[in-house]
Amino acid sequence: MDLQKLTIGKALNLGLRHAMEQDPKVLIMGEDVGKLGGVFRITDGLQKDFGEQRVLDTPLAESGIIGTAVGLAVRGFRPVCEIQFEGFIFPGFDQISSQLAKLHYRTQGKVKMPVVIRVPFGGGIGAVEHHSESPESLFAHIAGLKVVSISNAADAYWGIQEAIRSDDPVMFFEPKKLYHSGALKMEIDTETSPGRVFGSHVVRAGTTATVVAYGPSVKVALDAAAAAEDEGKSLEVIDLCTLSPLDLGPVFESVRKTGRLVAVSEAPLESSLTSEIAARVQQECFYSLESPVLRVAGFDTPYPPAKLEEHYLPDLDRVLHAVDRSLAW
Fold it and tell me: Which class for 306: exposed (0-12), middle (13-18), buried (19 or more C-beta within 10 A)?
């Protein structure tokens, strides 16, 4: 047993390192991922230790990064692409949706696409335009992609390795504002795998209402649950982790127990993952619901300037207000 206390950022770095040690076909590519170690330093030290042939600094061209990764995957490599900020991903959207997501299916499984696209996403870092988006719903809608979002260091460490081992393409969304949070450090056994990482799981048990979240919103949900406990309310918090295909079994089970659900996400409300969660829970748990499914999300506007983002992002008060509304129904 090798126990290490890690932030999410350090866990990702160590997970990438172990994947590269275990398989010489694993490559890392992206803007500034080599000498600089990435703008968030997630790939820090990897080029130094594995060389420029395996950790490649690319031009500022997301379509080129993804297109090159597709070609490398056809030749048997396992590329891990870093998109520097989520708002820069759209020049590569065509390659992701038309090629990466389709080739395994189109060739009846003959051509595998073991490509991981790492996407720092979400707000809370005081950044300029195009640096704080939440586009995960767009990719969850594309058949052929697995879409995941981690919220803690253990899932980051084991999840990135599981994603790299996959023969199907994985969009790996990482909450950038939590990368280096000391408060979220976790002691991780880096040698003994916990088994299956992806899929929904209960991170706090409760009986009054269910709160489901993913990525950066999981911490908000947990903070809300801690505050609600002082008021005598017991909130069950579920981390979705896998956004496509959605694993809603644990959510259904929880809602049948509590009768209430609040879904939380930073993404705009309309046509979002919270929309799908609400629809599916209503369909599967209709007779268990004591109130409508309520959603707490970003607003249906472009992401605001940094000085306004605290009013845009879901916070503890908005989650607790939704819980109160559900209980008052």
Answer: middle
Residue 140: the pLDDT is: 97
Give the pLDDT of residue 163: 98
- CA dist 105 and 118 (Å) reads 22
pTM of the entire structure? Answer: 0.96
Handedness of CA 26, 29, 33, 35 (dihedral sign): positive
Cα–Cα distance, 268 to 141 (Å, whole number) = 15
Q: Using 50, 70 and 90 to split pLDDT, how confident is the model at 103?
A: very high
CB-based contact 136:121 (threshold 8 Å): yes
- Taking only the tens place, the pLDDT of each residue in 173-204 is 999 999 999 989 999 999 888 877 889 999 99
Give residue 2's pLDDT. Answer: 74
251: nearest Cα among 219, 298, 293, 195: 293
DSSP tag of 101: T
- Looking at the chain, list the stretches that DSSP marks H as alpha helix, in order from N- to C-terminal side: 8-22, 46-50, 62-74, 93-94, 103-106, 136-140, 153-165, 217-229, 249-258, 273-285, 309-312, 316-328
d(Cα 296, Cα 275) in Å, to the nearest integer?
11
Q: Is 180 a catalytic residue?
A: no
Phi-psi region of 294 (alpha: psi -120 to 50; beta: other; left: phi over 0): beta
Those residues with Cβ within 8 angstroms of residue 302's Cβ, 6 or more apart along the chain or in another chain: 129
Catalytic residue among 18, 104, 131, 201: 131
What confidence score (pLDDT) does residue 195 get?
A: 76
- Dihedral pair phi/psi, residue 142, rounded to 5°: -90, 115
CA distance 160 to 166: 10
Query: What's the DSSP call for residue 290?
Result: S
d(CA 179, CA 174): 8
In whole angstroms, what is the distance from residue 204 CA to residue 224 CA?
A: 11
